[in-house]
Amino acid sequence: MVVVGILGSDSSEMTDLFSRICQEKGLTTLVSLYKTTGKDVIPVVCIDENNSTTLYVPPRVWILQDTSEFGTYMTEHMSEHSYLVVNADSPVISPPSCNGIITYGFNGKASVTASSITDGTLQVCIQRSFKSLGQHFYEPQEFKALCPQSVNPLNVLGAVTACAVCDVLL
Questions:
Q1: Which of 70, 149, 153, 167 makes the best surface tag, with the fewest CB within 10 Å?
Q2: Cα–Cα distance, 45 to 39 (Å, whole number)
Q3: Structural domain containing residue 161
């Protein structure tokens, strides 16, 4: 099981996209809200390959949509074994120490970006190599991802990147 925490102003759409990709690959997703402090709420998606219910564990992969959501909670609850999937168009100034930081976005320096967007399709481009949770090595490549016109293409990139980190795309 992999637990993914999603922080950002558009986390509900990101959660839906991430869950849809997982379900298309035959994985069960359990979505819940986790209250941190005050009014902060983090959608948490659990990928469960065995279709069994487990107790909540802290997220191992964090999707950070914008830097305004980066706070003390992140620095306190991330470990060196965590992965951080960051929107490169809103970079974190001083990210915590973790296992891997993989960026996504339309910024030319992003690890994962889009080379084109057409009706219903986004051409995903992995520009920089990275390792997944299962130690799979993603080399530079391009592939298509569904991108309905009603969703933000940036959220599609974030969901696809997080799915790659979680070994869902294999």
A1: 149
A2: 19
A3: 2-106+151-165
pTM (two decimals): 0.88
pLDDT digit string, tens, across residues 80-113: 778 889 898 886 655 666 668 899 999 888 999 9
pLDDT per position as a tens digit, 145-163: 999 888 999 999 999 999 9
Asked whether 71 and 130 are in contact (CB, 8 A), the reply is: no
> Largest alpha-carbon pair distance within the chain?
42
User: Does a structural domain hold residue 117?
Assistant: no
Contacts of 72 (CB under 8 A, 6+ apart): none
Instruction: Look up residue 148 and give its two tokens.
Output: 């309905």
